[in-house]
């Protein structure tokens, strides 16, 4: 199992790196071999700026957002013991979307990093509410209900923001941001992805025994020494921070958190802890591929990343639901 | 040895176990029997420290249960809940290996394989649990329990989904574990099997302990009539023969 997990993770990591490298040559401005040599030897040149200042941060953000969503999805599925769970179930993504919408309406969208900071702030507030709740009621059904409640509230507040939006231009700007993109992302955005993944590296190993033993239910896990409250809290912190950061960096990117763990399971990994890192690596590859597709498609300027991942992910979700329904029948 | 003193358990506003005092001796198989809602599951969960609402004293080998850390408890006792859910489609051996907390890698798998052999599933080790029958899955979970090598095993209705031969085989396995110096507490619905295999019977009714002791003593005519609404007689080999023709009115 461990060998399988490591070889799968290795394969996905190499795929991600190869894709990231390959996508450095895809963009609006075609670059020749000499241009790339200039970009490497003179990073301050125009070609250097295109490669190091635009394309590489974009690729890193695409991979990082996918990785955060993949890890968050696998953690939520393991914690809730539900293959249909995904990071958005906690409502933190909606909170981040609300934060971004408010920032755009208030006109601070042009201030560098202001939208991301606002999205992050509201998502952290929602995470704090979740954590306070879990510390008292570590029940998974209650957690799902609270997540639905937070999501609905943030959705309603977002609708209110749209309603009170001062101009159609602002509304379009909010919609565009919410539909997800990694276009024109900076190294600061890439740093947010690194921060999120660093949090995951610190917290995920603490879920090892808990997620595995939860396979047999809470009572068995508890009788085997698992502190359910502790595991739930760590799982919720991990998933909510990753989901919030991913929305802060790239807007709403649908279905990656749901689909990445299923992709990994389809390759033979079943251990709910063992799927977490491979799911992150698979998520990174998925978002890089979707972003690459957007860049090479003729109407590339019009299709948003979140729309494309949802268009690909929704049929997959329907297939998963169909398979689950068949197994329950 | 487990000492329980003045145990009360409330579920919401209802008291499901009331003022129960008992001692489960080491090296014996204790069967808890009683009609539905008698408090068997609640008692087992309380013994395993899974019910924070339980009040009273529970001591394991003289140590207060609440003073033990979760890990210390887990080393001392293992619990098989009534619910048999397995969330992910792991291989049978991987499920059993979940019970080997203190072993790693190869040792864990080797130990898990031995427990699968005890449960007659050595050829199913690499089979995914979702492909197994309900009875086979139940035996995988029993193997997981055995793999813990705990001093105390608490089993809630372990015979559910097992065929008659495996019901007897499972009780024989746990009887032999008791003979090795472990304490086995098992809740059962089959009074006949409980009478045959248990060293001590604990009869619960409406949350109260109404009888305990060796099966012939615990299952007196009065207890059979008042608690189970049946009559029966003991034949050779603790074989309880229930008389279906002589069912009195409840409470008679």
TrEMBL record, chain A:
Species the sequence originates in: Asticcacaulis endophyticus
Database matches in Gene3D superfamilies: ABC transporter involved in vitamin B12 uptake, BtuC
Protein name: Iron ABC transporter
CC per GO annotation: plasma membrane
Entry keyword annotation includes Membrane: yes
GO biological process, one term: cobalamin transport
Localization: Cell membrane
Molecular function as annotated in GO: transmembrane transporter activity
Coiled-coil blocks: none
Transmembrane segments: 57-76, 88-111, 117-135, 142-165, 185-204, 231-255, 275-293, 305-322
SUPFAM superfamilies per the UniProt record, alphabetical: ABC transporter involved in vitamin B12 uptake, BtuC
Keywords: Cell membrane, Membrane, Transmembrane, Transmembrane helix, Transport
Source organism superkingdom: Bacteria
Protein topology in the membrane: Multi-pass membrane protein
The keyword Transmembrane appears for this protein: yes
Family designation: Belongs to the binding-protein-dependent transport system permease family. FecCD subfamily.
Primary location group: membrane
Automatic annotation (TrEMBL), chain B:
Protein name, UniProt field: Iron ABC transporter ATP-binding protein
Entries under Pfam families matching the protein: ABC_tran (PF00005)
Native source species: Asticcacaulis endophyticus
CDD domains the UniProt entry points to: ABC_Iron-Siderophores_B12_Hemin
Gene3D superfamilies in alphabetical order: P-loop containing nucleotide triphosphate hydrolases
Source organism, top-level taxon: Bacteria
Alphabetical list of SUPFAM superfamilies matching this protein: P-loop containing nucleoside triphosphate hydrolases
GO function terms (MF aspect): ATP binding; ATP hydrolysis activity
Lineage: Bacteria, Pseudomonadati, Pseudomonadota, Alphaproteobacteria, Caulobacterales
Keywords: ATP-binding, Nucleotide-binding, Translocase, Transport
SMART domains named among the record's database cross-references: AAA
Physiological role: Part of the ABC transporter complex HmuTUV involved in hemin import. Responsible for energy coupling to the transport system.
Domain ABC transporter: start-end pairs: 2-231
Database matches in InterPro entries: AAA+_ATPase, ABC_transporter-like_ATP-bd, ABC_transporter-like_CS, P-loop_NTPase
């Amino acid at each position: 199992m461990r060998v399988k997990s490591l070889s799968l993770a290795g394969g996905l990591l190499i795929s991600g790196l190869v894709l990231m490298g390959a996508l450095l040559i895809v963009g609006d401005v075609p670059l020749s071999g000499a241009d790339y040599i200039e970009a490497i030897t003179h990073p301050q040149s125009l070609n250097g700026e295109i490669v190091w200042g635009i394309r590489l941060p974009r690729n890193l953000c695409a991979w990082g957002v996918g990785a955060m969503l993949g890890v968050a999805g696998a953690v939520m599925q393991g914690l809730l013991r539900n293959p249909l769970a995904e990071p958005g179930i906690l409502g933190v993504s909606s909170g981040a979307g609300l934060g971004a919408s408010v920032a755009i309406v208030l006109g601070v969208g042009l201030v560098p990093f202001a939208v991301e900071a606002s999205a992050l702030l509201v998502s952290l507030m929602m995470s704090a509410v979740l954590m306070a709740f879990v510390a008292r009621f570590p029940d998974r059904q209650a957690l799902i209900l609270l997540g639905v409640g937070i999501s609905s509230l943030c959705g309603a507040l977002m609708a209110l923001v749209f309603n009170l939006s001062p101009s159609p231009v602002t509304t379009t700007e909010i919609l565009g941001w919410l539909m997800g993109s990694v276009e024109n992302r900076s190294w600061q955005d890439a740093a947010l992805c690194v921060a999120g993944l660093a949090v995951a590296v610190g917290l995920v190993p603490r879920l090892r025994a808990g997620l595995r033993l939860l396979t047999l239910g809470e009572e068995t896990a508890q009788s085997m020494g698992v502190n359910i409250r502790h595991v739930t809290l760590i799982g919720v912190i991990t998933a909510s921070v990753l989901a919030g950061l991913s929305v802060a960096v790239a807007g709403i990117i649908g279905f990656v958190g749901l689909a990445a763990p299923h992709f990994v399971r389809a390759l033979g990994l079943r251990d709910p802890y063992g799927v977490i890192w491979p799911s992150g690596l698979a998520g990174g590859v998925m978002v890089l591929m979707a972003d690459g597709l957007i860049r090479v498609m003729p109407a590339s300027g019009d299709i948003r990343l979140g729309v494309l991942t949802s268009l690909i992910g929704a049929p997959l979700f329907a297939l998963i639901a169909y398979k689950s329904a068949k197994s329950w029948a | 040895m487990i000492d329980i003193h003045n145990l009360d358990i409330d579920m919401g506003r209802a008291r499901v176990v009331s003022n129960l005092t008992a001692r489960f001796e080491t090296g014996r198989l204790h069967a808890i029997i009683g009609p539905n809602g008698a408090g068997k599951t609640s008692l087992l969960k309380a013994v395993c420290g899974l019910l924070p609402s339980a009040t009273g004293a529970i001591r394991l080998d003289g140590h207060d249960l609440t003073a033990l850390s979760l890990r210390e408890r887990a080393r001392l006792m293992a619990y098989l809940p009534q619910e048999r859910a397995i969330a992910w489609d792991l291989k049978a051996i991987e499920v059993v290996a979940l019970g080997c907390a203190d072993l790693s890698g190869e040792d864990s798998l080797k130990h898990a394989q031995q427990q699968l052999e005890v449960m007659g599933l050595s050829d199913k080790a690499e089979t995914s649990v979702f492909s197994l029958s309900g009875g086979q899955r139940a035996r995988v979970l029993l193997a997981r329990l055995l793999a813990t090598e705990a001093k105390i095993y608490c089993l809630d209705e372990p015979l559910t989904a097992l065929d008659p031969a495996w019901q007897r085989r499972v009780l024989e396995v746990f009887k032999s574990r008791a003979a090795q110096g472990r304490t086995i507490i098992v809740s059962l619905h089959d009074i006949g099997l409980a009478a045959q295999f248990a060293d001590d019977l604990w009869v619960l009714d409406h949350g109260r302990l109404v009888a305990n002791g060796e099966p012939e003593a615990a299952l007196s005519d009065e207890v059979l009539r008042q608690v189970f609404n049946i009559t029966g007689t003991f034949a050779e080999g603790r074989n309880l023969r229930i008389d279906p023709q002589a069912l009195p009115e409840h409470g008679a």
